[in-house]
Structures are given as C-alpha cells and as structure tokens.
Specification:
The chain is α/β, with parallel strands linked by helices. It has helices spanning 13-27, 54-68, 82-87, 89-94, 110-120, 131-138, 167-170, 179-191, 218-226, 246-249, 251-254, 271-277, 283-296, 315-328, 354-377, 439-445, and strands at 3-9, 31-33, 42-47, 76-81, 100-102, 124-126, 149-156, 175-176, 196-201, 208-211, 214-217, 233-237, 261-263, 301-308, 332-337, 383-392, 397-401, 407-410, 420-428, 432-437. It starts with a strand and ends with a helix.
C-alpha cells in the first residue's frame, strides 16, 4: 500500500514547478499525492522567502499541522524551498516538529534523506547548491504534469544582486539548464496534453547555455519550441530589463506562438531609486524596449512589478513612477510596499515613513487598477481567442485565458478543455473577463 504525501506550496511559479517535480521524485519511493491533509503520511511545505514575514508564516503553518495531528500519528514533516535554504539548521532547532529541511537545489537528494530518516529517525538539513546535479537527476524522471498550461524551469539563480532581493542567497548563482534537456521535457509535457508552455527562471531571459562552442539564448529556445507540434502558446517569466537582448525582442516579430504579453519588472520609474536598488538599468532603457516592441507589434502589452516606499524615495521619485505608468498603461501589474529582507543591502537602509508608503501605494494601485479595468472594458462586445484550461469546481463553467493571461470565464462542455476557442466578451471587472462561446466554436467542438 502506497504512502500518502500532502504538499502545500507558497510563492512563485517556480515553486509550483518544483512542487510538481518533488511529487514525481517521491513516487519512486512509494509516495502518492493526497488531496487531504487528513490522509498524509508525509507533509511537505514548499516555502517562499520573497514577501514579508515569510519565515513566521512557515512556523504558523507547522503549528497548524501539529494541532491537526494532535491525537493522530505524526506525519513526516519536511520544509523545502527558499525559507528552508535561508534558515536551514535554525528551523530544526526552533521547531522540533520539523523532521527534514531541504533547499531548492537539493531535491534530487530528497528520497535519500527520507529513507535515511525512516531508518534511524535522524533529523537533517541539506541546503547545498547542487543545481547541475539536481537537473541531471530530474531529467531522468518524466515530468508527469498533465495540465493544458505547464510551467517549465529553464534557468535558476541570480547574479544581479538587487539590494532588496534574497534570491542570490536562496537560489544561488545563475544556472542555465542544457538546451536539449529543456526541449525533451517540453515534448514530454506536450505528450501529457500541454498546449501552452511557460518558461520559468529567476532571470529567465538571462538563459545562456553553451553547446559545442555555440551560445544558445532564450530566443533560441522560443524558436525551437515554435517548431514542436502541439504547442500552441509560449510564454516566459520573470525577465530583467538588462537581458532584453535584440534577438529576444525580435522573437515577437518572428514567432507565431509567443504571446504578446511582456512581463518586465521595472520596480520604480525613478533612475535615482533604480540606482539605489542596484537594478543596473535606467527608465530610458525600459522605454526603449517598450517602443521597440510596440513598433514590431502594436498588440503587445506590458505588465510589471513595483516596489513603493523604497528607502530614499522622495515625492519626485514617486511622481516619476506615476508618469511612467501613464506612459506605458500596463495591462496588469503587481505593487508592494518595500519590506526589508534580512541580509540584503536594503535591510540596512533607513526606511521612509510607513504612512507615506501606504498612501503612495494606494495612489499607485488606483492608477494601475484603473488602466487594468479600462483595458478589460475595451474587450467587451469583442471576439477574442482563449485557451480553455479546466472546468471550475462546482460552477459548471470553464476557465480559460486569453493572449494576455487574463482569466476568461465561459459556459461550455468539458470537451472544450485543451482547445483554443473564440468567445465574445460580455462583461468584465478588474481581474476577470466573462464570455460566451462563438457559435462556430460550438459547432467545431461538437
């Protein structure tokens, strides 16, 4: 009888990809995924260290699990991910309920440490940066994810050392996976039913693999995926403005499958703040990329990330960010008040007044959300193409996405899942579009 593992994921898309691969690895030693914590022999928490109080959220979650299993057999408790990497042995000291701690570059050793623990009950932490060994190991285990839209990690780590960011410390230096390894995994995902491939990396457009004296970049990957039958859509995230090379920009002219949404975090519209952040790009660089891509294809839209209230931000810096937003009119964006991460350069800087930051965030979000609503509103009564991903639980509706990653809800039969169909948008709100299936799509599906 197989053992059951319940896995909970915090954080980014790369953690979602990692969690899927952890499940593939655990199957080798007899663990099957459980949808219920109640049935778990093993509890894995895949953690994220980017947001505020990430560490405390982990301990809160472990406390909840301890209480849940108070009068039951205790499961094997494993902390994985970036908090595990950052805290390592400290977690075992602080919380005795935790059995194993494993960093994101050591998942290939997961089965080994579990079997060792089952034998001698010896608690352990493994947080080595063994990225090459990890991906070589994982490449031999088929990625069994069977969703219409699938994540595929191509690059990990970061060499940029932005002053606010912990990624170089939790994911290590930049590493690009072997080109053929990625293509083979993409083909495997297509065989499982994937129609959309989303390429992932902490700095995904820093992908740089040398194969027989030839440098292969993200643009080479995109154009190779273009030729794989079954792939209908290609996306990538998250990018850095410094690595938006001309060959990558030109993919938006050459590729028919690369979606016209560019998620490119700028963080601030002030060159002074970008310099303090150690971003190594200027606002002018960002605007050049925007204009170049708009000239290639007027349909292209931008989304971004913003940090508000970074130490040293004055009213002029804030107003420059507002001006940039008015110029670009982002289709979707994420904005947060600056939160110091322990160990980073920015954690030693004097923060600005919290109330000022809150007021500025409110103004920024009103502007960002305003453009988001306007762009969604502009799609009402128009026909757009969507890729149907799944049936929504208990709602008898289908969930799909358009070219710009907007959620589109429509009524339709389950046989539409995995198909690209045309819908007429009937209404919208800030985050979601609602549509009716075009009669031609109905007939085609039938």
């Amino acid at each position: 009888m197989s053992k059951k593992v319940f896995l909970k994921t915090f954080g980014c898309q790369m953690n979602v990809y990692d969690s899927n691969r952890i499940l593939d690895v655990l199957k080798i030693i007899g663990y099957e995924k459980s949808e219920s914590l109640n049935r778990a022999d093993c509890f894995v928490l895949n953690t994220c260290h980017i947001r505020d109080k990430a560490k405390e959220k982990v301990y809160h979650e472990i406390g909840r699990v301890r209480e849940f299993f108070l009068n039951k057999n205790k499961p094997l408790v494993i902390i994985a991910g970036c908090v595990a990497q950052a805290e390592n042995t400290e977690m075992l000291k602080r919380e005795p309920y935790i059995d194993l701690v494993i960093g994101p570059q050591s998942y290939h050793k997961l089965n080994e440490i579990i079997l060792k623990f089952e034998k001698n009950k010896s608690k352990n932490q493994i947080t080595d940066f063994d990225t090459i060994e990890k991906f070589n190991y994982l490449s031999k285990i088929r990625n069994k994810k069977s969703k219409v839209s699938s994540f595929l990690t191509i690059q990990e780590g970061c060499n940029k050392f932005c002053h606010f960011c912990v990624v170089p410390y939790t994911r290590g230096p930049e590493y690009s996976r072997p080109f053929d390894q990625i293509i083979n995994e993409a083909k495997s995902l297509v065989q499982n039913g994937s129609k959309e491939i989303i390429l992932l990396g902490q700095n995904v457009n820093a992908y740089n693999y040398v194969d027989v004296n030839k440098k292969l970049r993200l643009s080479d990957l995109i154009m190779s995926l273009e030729n794989i039958d079954g792939i209908e859509r290609i996306r990538y995230t998250t990018s850095h403005p410094r690595d938006m090379s001309k060959d990558l920009l030109d993919c938006y002219k050459e590729s028919k499958k690369l979606m016209p949404l560019v998620h490119l975090p700028i963080q601030s519209g002030s060159n002074k703040i970008l310099r303090l952040m150690n971003r190594k790009h200027k606002v002018e660089d960002y605007i050049y990329i925007f204009n170049y891509l708009k000239e290639i294809n007027s349909k292209i839209e931008f989304s971004s990330d913003f940090i508000i209230g970074y130490p040293g931000e004055e009213i002029e810096d804030f107003e420059n960010t507002l001006k940039l937003i008015d110029m670009i009119k982002f289709i979707n964006s994420y904005s947060f008040i600056f939160s110091a991460r322990p160990g980073t350069t920015a954690s030693k800087l004097k923060p600005i007044d919290e109330n000022v930051s809150k007021d500025r965030l409110k103004i920024i979000q009103e502007k960002l959300f305003g453009y988001q609503k306007l762009k969604n509103k502009a799609l009402e009564n128009k026909y757009i193409d969507v890729l149907v991903e799944n049936e929504m639980k208990g709602q008898n509706k289908l969930f799909s996405r358009n070219e710009y990653m907007n959620s589109v809800i429509l009524e339709g039969e389950k046989n539409l899942i995995g198909k690209k169909v045309q819908v007429k948008i009937t209404k919208s709100n800030q985050n979601t579009l609602f549509g009716e299936l075009n009669s031609k799509s109905k007939n085609k599906a039938a």
